[in-house]
């Protein structure tokens, strides 16, 4: 199940669309077009006498995230060095988690020291 999901997510492509008004990020959308802020220049009728255009303060950025196209279907193409590495890795990983036979507590038989006098009160040293 996890391998199928891994293959699915590694091969999916999508687009991230961003709309900026000046230097401020207005909207971010995945797969769809980002909503605009409504400040785009309106298309005016073309006049032959006076034809100048005002630059827009809004910009759109689209980033395309592409998944991989080719999926390798067989893992039997391992050469000898890769097989040796894989076998040694599995062997050391299995033997890494061997537990202790018993829980060893080194100070189990020694009692804590007796407090005859409270040293902090005696020397009038307090933490503030």
UniProtKB/TrEMBL annotation:
Keyword check for Transit peptide: no
Record-linked Pfam families: DUF8199 (PF26622)
Origin organism lineage: Bacteria, Pseudomonadati, Bacteroidota, Flavobacteriia, Flavobacteriales
NCBIfam families recorded: HYC_CC_PP
Presence of keyword tRNA-binding: no
Top-level taxon: Bacteria
Signal peptide: 1-15
Full protein name: Secreted protein
Keywords: Signal
């Amino acid at each position: 199940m996890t391998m199928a999901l891994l293959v699915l997510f590694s091969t999916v492509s999508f687009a991230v669309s961003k709309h900026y008004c000046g230097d401020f990020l207005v909207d971010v959308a995945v797969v769809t077009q980002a909503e605009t802020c409504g400040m785009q220049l309106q298309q005016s009728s073309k006049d032959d006498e006076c034809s100048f255009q005002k630059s827009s303060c809004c910009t759109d950025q689209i980033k395309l995230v592409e998944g991989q196209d080719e999926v390798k279907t067989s893992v039997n193409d391992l050469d000898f060095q890769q097989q040796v590495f894989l076998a040694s890795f599995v062997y050391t990983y299995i033997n890494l988690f061997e537990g202790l036979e018993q829980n060893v507590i080194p100070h189990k038989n020694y009692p804590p020291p007796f407090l005859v006098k409270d040293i902090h009160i005696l020397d009038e040293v307090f933490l503030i």
